[in-house]
Amino acid sequence: MNAAAAALFAIALLIRVLVSISPYSGAQTPPKYGDYEAQRHWMELTTNLPVQQWYKDGPDNDPKYWPLDYPPLSGYQSYVHGLFVKQFDPAAVALHSSRGYETYLSKQLLRWTVILSDLLIFFPAAYLASAVFSSDSSSPAAASPQQQQRQQLFVLAAGLLQPASIIVDHGHFQYNCISLALAVLAAVAIAKRKDVLGSVLFCLSLNHKQMGLFYAPAFFAHLLGRCLQQPTYTGKVLGVARLGATVIATFVVCWSPWLTSLDSASQVLRRIFPVGRGLFEDYLANFWCVTSVFIKWKSLASNAALMPVCAGLTVLAALPSMVQQVLQPSPRGLLLGMANSAFAFFMLSYQVHEKSILLPLLPITLLAASEPDCAIWGPAIASFSMYPLLVRDGVSLAYTATIVLYLLVITALVPSKGVQPVTLGSRCGRLLAAAGCAGAVLLHLLQALVPPPQRLPWLHDRLFVSYSFVFIAGAMLYLNWRQWNQQGSSSPVGKAKTK
User: Fold this and answer.
1) What radius of gyration, in Å, describes the C-alpha atoms of the chain?
2) CA atoms within 13 A on the CB side of 26
3) How far apart, in whole angstroms, are the C-alpha atoms of residue 90 and residue 233?
């Protein structure tokens, strides 16, 4: 690691530490508090109950008080972090009596579990990804070693400093860095032609948070396309069988404590897919929420009727990207496919959260070498789309500071025009991005200076998510177009020999 990368690691770590000083979700707001209490409560459950009871309703596991509703790897993570917290402050994870526990020491311990998870898992993943994906295969000329190093630093900065993930994990309080890091490592492994390892890593990401499903169509299509490239029919079949066996084996290992009976396994499934919670919650910049101003979807149809509609539309939206990767799999195409598949889920699937915008944002930052404008402005728009959530958490200062700092650093690291040629499309993209940020600033000023009408108290939140929706939908269309119009997509990584 060179000095510039080391400095970037230090800056990224410092930002996370400073953001962790902010308030968090549900701070001092009983009776259920918020996401901070949910994570602490899961540590309480996993360190005090047998593993088979983590997802089972009972007197020690109240389904009405933050039930564990993430897949098994999150439970294991909560157990490990709970042991860490218990070592220094046992009362913070004591069964029953620790509800709403918010001492200074416990808050510091929980904050450091996120920081250390980020530092030990996501930071190395981002560094490896910057080395693999920093080559802009769409550039007409090969980059010099100095330009290549600058591009790698640019990709690394986009991954480590993008504000949305920092604010959600270290301000709002979650552990998205773990599942996202596993997805990054899966993409890196597959780009290096280590398909089995990549499949294991992606399954682990999916078993940490079910939002990993957002990437499933992209990984499936890419790996299927690679298998179909085998010269013989037997090779094609064996390739699919090998990856299928890998997926099944990984899930069996992760789920083994709950595979003793059908009832035990179904308990986990019911927890991680709470279909009764509705089409969407709060304000988010997706199709269902934005259009609900005019069409009352929740009144028009039941949850049971809406679910298959959402599933069908999501598959249709992801299908063009999948077809492209089946026909022409490539490392850059995989990243574009991850972004487009995640956009399809964010926009159209059932029970989406504001924080789900982190899913399409991750591959966009990894595409920084070939899509620098998206990597520069995408994180700002993504953060802006979550503002109604973030302002409730009291992290407005961290929100502003991380966006401004990100834009200052990332624009200073943009590769030279000799490596990234300016085209009509890139000029239009920059003008749109500048206009988008100007509009975002105006909406912030409007919220600060003009109170909403009494009969429309939600007006500002609606404006924020509706405005964000326009740019997110535009990014979705643009990246789908880019995936089907790649030039030189067979990068050096993609030409690596199969191992």
Assistant:
1) 22
2) 19
3) 59
